[in-house]
TrEMBL record:
Species of the source: Tetraodon nigroviridis
Assigned GO CC terms: endomembrane system; membrane
Family from the record: Belongs to the glycosyltransferase 31 family.
Cross-referenced InterPro entries: Fringe-like_glycosylTrfase (IPR003378)
Family annotation (PANTHER family): FRINGE-RELATED
Membrane association type: Single-pass membrane protein; Single-pass type II membrane protein
Name the record gives this protein: (spotted green pufferfish) hypothetical protein
Length: 226
């Protein structure tokens, strides 16, 4: 598929205490940041708001809890659907993306296909207990296994797949879904896609997170990474 940067919705998740230390550096170094990047935070910031970036105050808690993380992801999802863009890509505020590489990767798929791209942090599917109501009575716990792309490395979802996620992700339903498995936002994304929609994560090792020793990457391959 022929893609342009304007077709990609890049959601950067942050919090007020990192506006100066992380976001300032990101804004200074992230090429073409203002064209397709939306920063989701938990506080207004006039200083950042004038730097040609789209800052979205989610009004979620600044705490690093499951509920607060899922609250922000819920807003990210809704804003992406509103945007009409072809791809949703989520990163944390300590990620740097090589945009030409991202564009090249996404161009090898079509946004109308069911595509979930990312890097798992585990070498096996995660196991969780899903709350299932038993004929309207008390909830039962059912074991489920699924892969998920770690949010710390970044992940991307096609618009076609994102639209199918709507019953469990739109208009606050994401938070309700997360409570069913009591896991964080990136795990909940994997749960919706792999368990509820039966679509598999496409593992790609072009994404990277702070969990890795990036010094082991051959220097000549750095610009090929996402």
């Amino acid at each position: 598929e022929s893609l342009e940067l304007k077709d990609i919705f890049i959601a950067v998740k942050t919090t007020k205490k990192y506006h100066r230390s992380r976001l300032k550096l990101l804004i200074e170094t992230f090429q073409y940041l203002h064209l397709q990047t939306y920063i989701f935070t938990d506080s207004e910031d006039v200083a950042l708001g004038i730097q040609s970036v789209t800052l979205i105050n989610t009004n979620c808690s600044a705490a690093h809890t499951r509920q607060a993380l899922c609250c922000k992801m819920s807003v990210e999802y809704d804003k992406f659907i509103e945007s009409q863009k072809k791809w949703f890509c989520h990163v944390d505020d300590d990620n740097y993306m090589v945009l030409p590489s991202l564009l090249r990767l996404l161009s090898s798929y079509h946004h109308s296909q069911d595509v979930y791209l990312g890097r798992p942090s585990l070498d096996h599917p995660i196991e969780a207990a899903e709350k299932v109501k038993n004929n309207g009575m008390a909830s039962q716990l059912t074991p489920v296994k699924f892969w998920f792309a770690t949010g710390g490395a970044g992940f991307c979802i096609s618009r076609g797949l994102a639209l199918k996620m709507s019953p469990w992700a739109s208009l606050g339903n994401f938070i309700t879904t997360a409570e069913k498995i009591r896991l964080p936002d990136d795990c909940t994304i994997g749960y919706i896609i792999e368990v509820l929609l039966d679509v598999h994560l496409t593992h790609t090792y072009l994404f990277h997170s702070h969990l890795e020793n990036l010094h082991t990457l051959p220097i000549g391959t750095v610009l090929q990474q996402v």
